[in-house]
Specification:
CATH superfamily of the largest domain in chain A: Response regulator
CATH class of the largest domain in chain A: Alpha Beta
Distance between the termini of chain A: 73 Å
Structural class of chain A: alpha/beta
Shape of chain A: elongated
Strand content of chain A: 15-25%
Number of domains of chain A: 3
Helix content of chain A: 40-55%
Order of helices and strands of chain A: HHHHEHHEHEHEEHEHEHEHEEHEE
Oligomer: homodimer
Number of helices of chain A: 13
Amino acid sequence: MAVTIKEIAERAGVSPSTVSRALAGNPRISAETRARIQRIIDELGYHPNMNARSLVVKSSGTIGVVLPRSGDSAFLNPFFPEVLRGITAALEEHGYALLLATGRDDAVKHEHVARMVQGKQVDGVILLESRADDHLIFYLREQRVPMVMIGRPLLEGIAYVDNDNVLAGKEATEYLLERGHRHIAFLGGSLAYAVTVDRRDGYMLAMDKAGIAPAMRTVLSTDFSEEDAYREVTDVLHRPDRPTAFVVADDLMALGVIGAVQSAGLTIPEDVSIVSFNNVLLSRLTNPPLTSVDIHILDLGRKAVEMLFALIEKSSSRVDHYTDTYIVHTQLIERGSVSLGPFASGNV
Amino acid sequence: MAVTIKEIAERAGVSPSTVSRALAGNPRISAETRARIQRIIDELGYHPNMNARSLVVKSSGTIGVVLPRSGDSAFLNPFFPEVLRGITAALEEHGYALLLATGRDDAVKHEHVARMVQGKQVDGVILLESRADDHLIFYLREQRVPMVMIGRPLLEGIAYVDNDNVLAGKEATEYLLERGHRHIAFLGGSLAYAVTVDRRDGYMLAMDKAGIAPAMRTVLSTDFSEEDAYREVTDVLHRPDRPTAFVVADDLMALGVIGAVQSAGLTIPEDVSIVSFNNVLLSRLTNPPLTSVDIHILDLGRKAVEMLFALIEKSSSRVDHYTDTYIVHTQLIERGSVSLGPFASGNV
DNA sequence: TTGAAAGCGTTACCAG
DNA sequence: CTGGTAACGCTTTCAA
């Protein structure tokens, strides 16, 4: 049996209530008893049973993070370790712990989340996925669990932190247009994700503005994986009118694009230019290094926990239905995957 | 207020005990009441309060994972997402959740771990770090918490899963020796880590066996980071008798080595060869791609949870002090960072 | 097959 | 400033 509050109360010759107060830093307690209690606590290395504590106060001191898909495939993309980095760093400052939720499929993940939410294991939740068809969001909203999403939700009334992905998509595309590319393709993940939709919309906006004919546009969408990107782009490259540049919504996918281009006997950036997104470590390692849009993943994570704590705060003072939004800025990092296109005017 | 067992008992016209039994799948209960109860549970979307449950049964259904250093810097190295990948996958199969422990310094991390262990939030712990001076291990052993380490502990009597790092270090070095290198340097992380020590020992063994004079050996040790590796190696490269090859204990460090070599105006593999460790994603992205020893990180993670569950099992049946060891094999993956050295015999 | 009651370790309210 | 008591939501004897 572990040492309990009762035991230390006995040794100190006081009641459990007093010990509890001492622990909580309650001021109405004599300095001497406080000291005596503290000494015994240190001596015995006492730590309160969090389950008992959480049972009575309504806080668990931990927040839940819901990974997309199964934890297995999620960690494949460097995006996730990076957000987690931001999240854990911020959580540390608040003395909060982090419970991870995964699940090989949506059903078991839902079960997992329900257990931690209704099981009162977490005070709030950060969602790392914004898919259109996600029941989880409805569920969490209905349960009135404080939550914030990383990435724009496809529903109203949910707090989130995100980049301005349509702006970022637009800028990435314009970057290519300014350098004389006209036939530019967009490659993104599934259109069920808001990120994909937004970046594509940005791409479309830029193409519209530049007056590029629909025939010169190509929108590809597939899984967020290197292999699928490879397959998809390989097809396109063998068309007679292949694009001279790609806007790719994810560095990992860009890896697939690089592979496809090189397998097709073409070279980057001479034959095809690429600008991608996320600017994770690997983008400076590829050959050539990728020009990529830095989305400040770390900040996404940090800000998400700040917002979550604000929500938890509010929800305990019953100011229901508080939602907020925070946009972290993006920045295109120039590297070596873009060259001048066939329509370059020479003055960029 | 969330829905409780009491409430569903009322609606079903039975006692809380009965509902509890139904939930637990207790066979001594009539099919009809069970069905009725189940219907109400589904209807109300009831989930038990895990804190209350954990308070009485002595299991929390979650295990703790202790990250090295602060979570912040840990996620910088691709090794950690990858173990986590293995761990979460295996945990999923057991229906267990995962609580992460970090801490910007050893003191707060210790506090964090103590809270989750003595606070009965976890049934066991996986340690992701094997440093010599780690008080945490003593603490956990004294608390008799089921635990397994990933990486060889520097103490006896602790269950762990690891690679045979001295063998792997030896093989990596021999690979270079066979290809005609004699002046081979070893670059590792801090010698407070067992990995570093073991791989270096393997290097020494190979050099001994090949009869290489101590003057031709160089052992470098620094932080597990790209920057430090860069700095350390830059020094060495400017010595008149620079090594023709490096055994580098980590892919991320190898990145720094590559940078240093190229900054010194030398080329890989012509001027200096590299074999590194871990074989994470980036090792095939560098230019040239890194010949690296695959340590099967995923298996390290999976196996660790298997062992942990075995331990938890044993500990509940009070067969104290059960320890075990599992070695996952390694495999050198040949890529483009090694060429023949000055003493190549031509017949490798 | 089911119910009543005790107990898990804390906190919080009410007295004193 | 401190103690007694109830309560948190669940499981588990012990009886029926």
